[in-house]
Amino acid sequence: MRKARTFTPEFKREMVEELLSGTTRPAQLCRRHNISSGLLYYWKKQYALGKLSNEATQEGALLDRINKLEQMLGKLTLENEFLKKALQNVLRREGRNGHSLLLTKTSFQASREDVS
């Protein structure tokens, strides 16, 4: 069985910089170094995020921030839906028993006056 090749960060960075310079087409780079185009574009994404011992580009940093915010939005949406369903279940049970957890303004003020 053949051992998987490993590439140094310097080599990856050189390939991406050559790709970004526009002097060589992606297919030419891939053929010359016997790498897949998917790998080359994966390195390009890493380069944009600053993971190849280079400074992160503003575009890469913004894309990373967008991904994190989208994940947070999804999580909050799920939590919101869960809480809505839980509240509906509680209100449905309370309605059957004749009790209610919800306080109206007048009942709240009356309860405050009883304490005073």
How would you sum up this structure, described in words?
- The chain is mainly α and 116 residues long.
- The protein has two domains: 1-56, Winged helix-like DNA-binding domain superfamily/Winged helix DNA-binding domain (Arc Repressor Mutant, subunit A); 58-116.
- The protein is 72% helix and 0% strand.
- The chain contains five helices and no strands.
- The longest helix is centred in the last third of the chain and has 40 residues, at 58-97.
- The protein is elongated and about 85 Å long.
- It starts with 8 loop residues before the first helix and ends with a helix.
Keywords, please?
116 residues, mainly alpha, Arc Repressor Mutant, subunit A, 2 domains
Q: Give the number of helices.
A: 5
- First-residue to last-residue Cα separation: 84 Å
List segments where confidence is low: pLDDT < 50 over at least 5 consecutive residues.
none
**What is the total number of structural domains?**
2
Mean pLDDT: 83
State the gist of this model:
This protein is mostly helical and 116 residues long. The protein is 72% helix and 0% strand.
